Amino acid sequence: MRLRLEFTTEPFDLEEPPEHARMARALVESAPLERVDVGPFGNTVEGGAGAVLEVVDRLLRAAPEVGARRISLQVTVLDGVAGGEGENR
After folding, report:
1. In what order do the strands lie in the sheet with 70-79?
2. 4-8, 30-34, 79-83: which has the minimum mean pLDDT?
3. Closest by alpha carbon to 29, among 43, 11, 9?
4. Model confidence at 70: pLDDT above 70
5. Taking the mean position of all CA atoms in its chain, how far away is CA 26?
6. pLDDT of amino acid 71
7. φ, ψ at 87 (rounded to 5°)
8. So what's the pLDDT on residue 81?
9. CA-to-CA distance for 20 and 88, rounded, in angstroms?
């Protein structure tokens, strides 16, 4: 199963990315994902369910520790069935 994750961490700082935004960027860029798009107001990643869910877990645990006060996310199923062949675990 392939998933798309769209997320933001807040609070925003237009002058300089806050530590939680820099941490989130490093996290997604180091993960085994198929697509990573990091922007100033939101981030989008795509990959196997295992890889995307691992990013969600790590993001939700780490971002508040470095200053995030809100984490908004949306997960979209792109294709496949849970537990199907080729799932990235």
Report:
1. 35-38, 43-48, 2-10, 70-79
2. 79-83
3. 43
4. yes
5. 10
6. 97
7. -65, 135
8. 65
9. 26
In whole angstroms, what is the distance from residue 18 CA to residue 9 CA? 9
At residue 11, does pLDDT exceed 60? yes
CA angle 84/30/50 to nearest 5° reads 15
The H-or-E segment that residue 77 falls in is strand 70-79
For 35-50, write each residue's pLDDT tens digit: 999 887 889 999 999 9
C-alpha 67/C-alpha 49 separation (Å) is 27
Report the run of H or E that residue 28 belongs to, with start and end: helix 19-30
Burial 7-19 (b: 16+ CB within 10 A, else e): bbbbeeeeeebbe
* Residue 89 · residue 48 · CB < 8 Å: yes
Residue type for position 16: E
